[in-house]
Design a protein that fits this description.
The complex is a heterodimer. Chain A is mainly beta. Chain A has a single domain, classed as OPCA outer membrane adhesin/invasin (Lipocalin), CATH 2.40.128. Chain A is 14% helix and 60% strand. The radius of gyration of chain A is 20 Å and the shape is elongated. The N and C termini of chain A lie far apart (49 Å). Chain B is an alpha/beta fold. In chain B, the strands form 3 sheets. Chain B has a 7-stranded mixed β-sheet with strand order 3-4-5-6-9-10-14. Chain B has a 4-stranded antiparallel β-sheet with strand order 2-1-12-11, covered by helices on one side. In chain B, strands 8-7-13 form a 3-stranded antiparallel β-sheet, with helices on one face. Chain B is elongated and about 85 Å long. The relative contact order of chain B is 0.15. The chains are: A mainly beta, B alpha/beta. Chains A and B meet through strand 1, strand 7, helix 2, strand 12 and strand 13 of A and helix 1, strand 7 and strand 11 of B.
């Protein structure tokens, strides 16, 4: 039955994406398009009980890319990633224990509709895909989380002065699939198929919602516009707690700086 | 302030500051408690190895409380895990300077000296033998001098290397031999699917080899539903004439799994000793708060009759052990026995 549930969920997600993309395709020419690139520092605090009873903390460099298509409604793709080392476990007397590598990638594809013009408030949904892979000593120890979550998202936008924009985005998962390692990190299936990562990950997918997958996300974006270009500063926060046979908790606070470029500004809806 | 988004964000951050705490102590006593519990909740061999883990706690907990330094604590813990006699159980210290494998005891060390591949190459193999890279070692194959008996030595079951791709070619080269000696002595193990891959090239009939269940919870009896592993003919060609498969007490891990497949076949005779008895697959290393790492098996293998080879090793059809003095004198009695039998 989990296979049927999984297929059903994928089908609904696929249908939603096709519907959104087809609607947006019609609005493409008359919409405002914004592309933004940012780089920042993210402070990570991680406790993955598959990996270790010790919490790890570090400051990571992360890269972010965003594409927003906006007319009346808003379609967006946000991506951020890091692939750097966690070198400071949360142990006071020894900072050199278990230097580990972390791959942490998040892709969000979403759709927002306005519900209030003043203040500018939009709500909608996003599909949030994340890949989190923790490795110590070339996977002599390791852990992972992959997830595809359908999330509620809300955006509050404020134009402070003519060129200054401030927006607050909040998101929270509703339901989705998450893959975590088995109880002891490895089992016979994982060992036998260790050369086929996709097969291992998908075999461990479980339906998650409610307290099984807690992931509030907040982002505060400030943008200063000078013509088509814009300067961006962002503050990102997320808390993640995944209940599986052994839980994963992660808290990230990131500060990003970057530039944006906007096309079709004239068609921006007044 | 009421509607200020910054205030909301800052409020959440303050609330969640310190949400993630490990609460792990670092005293010898804390580490002992964690280590004992980690074995208690993950190790697969208590019953099959007749280990009373609760009694171990009552013996070692008071001793650990009397220790003050890591140098006092370390020997106690290595002594404690020796009770498993399982090469898949190990501890490594913070700097990696000290490591201890539970089953690497005197009998395994002695067994290593009861086999010498250089002696086989120089005194028993015809000159045209070949080598194939297998991981960091070489697989050797060829023919016994003046006999139509093929010989293959498998030093490990590495997960990479051309030897797997080329193995069907090896079988093709020896297919006209009257018999085959597969030498798996001192095999250090490796990647279980490699052992299965090679074993299937010696299958004549299809038969269940073993069942495997992983620990899936902290209870002593928390295991996954077992997966069944079957020996069946695979590859372009199989060698199905009489085979003598040689092992010793230093054949370990995937090396032992290889024999779980071979022992299902009537044309294979296992000659040697009980293997090292560390068969269950190791899980990820467990990282302890003081920087130590521990490893243990987390998958339990059972035979189709419900018994487990864990803690016992592979039972040979013909029990025979070389004398290390014979090896030093240039005589490999086990190999000579197999040659005569074939």
């Amino acid at each position: 039955m989990p296979t049927f549930k999984t297929a059903k969920l994928y089908f609904i997600a696929l249908l939603s994406i096709v519907s959104v993309v087809s609607t947006q395709a019609q609005e493409f020419k008359t919409s405002k398009h914004t592309i933004a690139l940012s780089v920042g520092q993210s402070n990570e605090n991680i406790l993955d009980r598959i990996f270790s009873p010790i919490s790890l903390q570090s400051s990571l460099t992360k890269f972010a890319f965003a594409y927003h298509q906006e007319k009346r409604n808003e379609f967006f793709v946000d991506l951020n990633s890091s692939n750097l080392s966690l070198e400071k476990p949360n142990i006071s007397y020894n900072n050199d224990l278990f230097p580990s590598s972390l791959i942490d990638v998040n892709i969000k594809v979403g759709y927002l509709r306005p519900i209030k013009k003043k203040p500018n408030l939009r709500i909608g949904a996003q599909l949030h895909n994340s890949v989190f892979v923790l490795s110590f000593d070339n996977y002599s120890s390791g852990s992972w989380l992959t997830s595809e979550m359908l999330e509620f998202v809300g955006k509050y936008q404020l134009s402070l002065l003519e060129r200054h924009q401030l927006s607050l985005i909040a998101a929270y998962p509703i339901i989705g699939l998450a893959s975590r390692p088995p109880y002891s990190g490895l089992d016979k299936f994982v060992i036998d198929n260790s050369d086929n990562v996709a097969k291992v990950v998908f075999s461990k997918n479980q339906l998650k919602s409610g307290l099984g997958y807690i992931n509030p996300q907040l982002a505060l974006h400030y943008q200063y516009l000078f013509g088509a270009l814009g300067f961006r500063a962002s503050l990102d926060y997320q808390y993640l707690h995944v209940n599986s046979v052994k839980s994963l908790s992660q808290q990230s606070i990131g500060i990003y700086l970057g530039l944006s470029y906007t096309l079709n500004q004239a068609s921006d809806e007044k | 302030m009421k509607n200020n988004p910054l205030a909301i964000i800052l409020g959440v951050l303050i609330l969640c500051n310190g949400c993630i705490n490990d609460d792990i102590g670092q005293s010898n006593n804390d580490i002992f408690e964690y280590l004992w519990t980690d074995f208690d909740e993950h190790y697969i061999g208590f019953e099959v190895r007749n280990v009373d883990w609760d009694s171990v706690y009552s013996i070692y907990a008071p001793l650990v409380r009397e220790t003050e330094t890591e140098d006092q604590f370390w020997p106690l813990m290595t002594e404690m895990i020796d009770i498993f006699d399982d090469q898949h159980v190990s501890i490594t210290d913070t700097d990696g300077d000290r490591g201890h494998a539970s089953g690497k005891l005197g009998d395994e060390l002695l067994a290593e000296k009861q086999f010498n591949l250089a002696l086989v190459e120089s005194s028993y193999l015809a000159d045209n033998f070949k080598r194939l890279q297998a991981g960091e070692e070489n697989m050797v194959y060829g023919f016994i001098q003046d006999k139509n008996i093929a010989y293959i030595h498998l030093p490990n079951f590495a997960g990479n290397g051309d030897y797997l791709d080329d193995f069907d070619q090896v079988i093709d080269e020896i297919k006209n031999a009257d018999g085959l000696i597969i030498d798996v002595r001192n095999n250090g193990g490796g990647f279980p699917p490699s052992a299965e891959y090679i074993a299937t090239r010696f299958a004549k009939t299809e038969s269940v080899a073993f069942l495997a269940s992983a620990k899936n919870g902290p209870g002593r009896n928390d295991y996954d539903e077992p997966s069944t592993y079957t020996m069946r003919p695979e590859g372009e060609v199989q060698f199905t004439k009489p085979i003598y498969a040689l092992n010793n007490h230093s054949t370990v891990s995937a090396g032992e799994e290889f024999f779980l497949y071979l022992q299902t076949q009537d044309h294979v005779t296992i000659l040697g000793d009980y293997t090292s008895n560390a068969i269950g697959d190791q899980g990820f290393s467990r990282l302890l708060p003081n920087g130590w790492k521990i490893s243990m098996p987390v998958v339990l293998y059972t035979l189709p009759d419900g018994t487990s080879p864990e803690g016992k090793g592979i039972t040979p059809d013909i029990e025979m052990v070389n004398d290390s003095l014979d090896i030093q004198s240039g005589i490999d009695k086990m190999l000579e026995f197999a040659i005569d039998a074939l």
